Amino acid sequence: MLNAISWQCYNVSTNSIDYNTWSLNLTNTPYRFSDDLNKFTVIGCDTLAYIGDFQRADSYQSGCVSVCHNEVSLVNSSCSGIGCCQTTIPKDLAYYEVWFASNFNSSSVWNFSDCSYAVLLEANRFEFLTSYITTTQFWYNNNGTAPLVVDWAIGNETCEVAQRDKTSYACISEHSECLNSSNGPGYLCNCLRGYHGNPYVAQGCQDIDECSDKDQYPCHGICQNLPGSHNCFCPVGTYGDAVNGTCTQTQHQKLPSSAKVAIGKSLFFPP
C-alpha cells in the first residue's frame, strides 16, 4: 500500500516551521506492519523524528536522527545518519504516529535544505538520493506517499487452538497446512509441498504435475508424477542421476571365447 509522508519545512517569510505529521491505524483489522520489510526512514539535515504507539501495553517509541552541515557530506545510497536515517520496528505493530522534535528543524540549514521527511516504508523499494535533501523530489515521487508492506493473519489463535474448532478453522483444503503468524498473533494457511492453489477453499490445493514443468523440475530420463511429489528414473539399460542428466549406459561384463566354449561343453557333455 502507499503510506503518507510526514514533513516539516522552514518558512523563511514567517521564520517558523510548517509541518504535517501522519498516523496510521490498522487496529482491529487482520493487518499489521511488516517488521521484516519496513523501516522507519527519516530524511533531513537537522532532523529528529519519532515513531510510536502509545496504545500498546509496552508503549512503543523509537526515533531516528539525521544531520548534515553541507551538501558535500551527502552520499547517494547511504542512509547511515548523514542526510538519511533508518530504524526497524517491532513485531505486531498495527498503529503508529509520527512527530518531529521541536528543537531540530531546518532553520540553520534552510539555504540548501529547508524540509525534512519521515515515513514508515518498504526498505527494499527505497534508495537515498542526495537530491532528496536539496529538492522536494522525495515528496513528489509518489505525490507525498511511499510504499508500505502490511502482513495479515487470521484471528488471534495459534494453529493448535484453531484446529480444535472445525467450524471456524480456515485451512479447509485436504492438502493444506496451518502456520502460526510470524508477526503477532493469528495463523495462515499454505498448500502442502507438492501442491498449489487456494488452501482456504475445499479442494483448493491441487497436485503439481512436476513432469509437465521441466524448467522447475528437471528430469533427463523417465518422469513419473505422484500425488504431492514425483520420481525421475534413468531409462532402462542406463544408471546414474536422471535429474542432473548423468545417466550412462550399463556396462555388461563380457566373457572370453574360451570360457564360453567351456560352459557349452559342460552343458552338453556331462561327466
TrEMBL record:
<feature type="domain" description="EGF-like">
    <location>
        <begin position="207"/>
        <end position="248"/>
    </location>
</feature>
<dbReference type="InterPro" id="IPR009030">
    <property type="entry name" value="Growth_fac_rcpt_cys_sf"/>
</dbReference>
<keyword id="KW-1015">Disulfide bond</keyword>
<keyword id="KW-0245">EGF-like domain</keyword>
<dbReference type="InterPro" id="IPR000742">
    <property type="entry name" value="EGF"/>
</dbReference>
<dbReference type="InterPro" id="IPR001881">
    <property type="entry name" value="EGF-like_Ca-bd_dom"/>
</dbReference>
<dbReference type="GO" id="GO:0005509">
    <property type="term" value="F:calcium ion binding"/>
</dbReference>
<protein>
    <recommendedName>
        <fullName>EGF-like domain-containing protein</fullName>
    </recommendedName>
</protein>
